[in-house]
Amino acid sequence: MTTLSDDELADRWQRRALGGTAVSHLEHVRVGWVLVGRHGAAEGEQRLVDGTRRACDHYGCPAKFDEALTRRWARAIAGARRDGEPFEAFLVHNPELRDGRLFGVPT
């Protein structure tokens, strides 16, 4: 698959049109980063929660969905996001968000 832009990744994720069985941790952070940038912290968080729930159902792993964990991630992303900053710079400034175990749950 060719490299997707931030918007393409988020749009395909929301439509569950990425193929495969799931997204990586960093892709999920990137989707959250896009959603918060597009919609603001509260709506971006809710879209990440709703989309993650739908994705877990779609890919046959509904037991993996953890709303509280998804909300913690969305809030961490929103708190660290700077307007106009590309995703790569966001990761440089927030390297802890690369670690899917940051909130105690391995990915």
What topology does this entry show?
Elements: H1 6-14, H2 25-39, H3 41-58, H4 67-80, H5 87-93
Helix pairs in contact: 1-2, 2-3, 2-4, 3-4
Walk me through what this model shows.
There is one protein chain. The chain has about 110 residues and is mostly helical. About 60% of the residues lie in helices and about 0% in strands. The protein has one domain (about 5-100). The protein is globular. The relative contact order is 0.14. The model has no long low-confidence stretch (mean pLDDT about 90).
Question: What is the percent of helical residues?
Answer: 55-70%
Integer tally of domains: 1
Order of helices and strands: HHHHH
Q: Span from first to last CA? A: 23 Å
Mean of pLDDT: 91
β-strand percent reads under 5%
**Shape by Cα distribution:** globular
Q: Care to give the gist of this entry?
A:
With 107 residues, the chain is mainly α.
Sum up the structure in keywords.
107 residues, mainly alpha, 5 helices, 0% strand
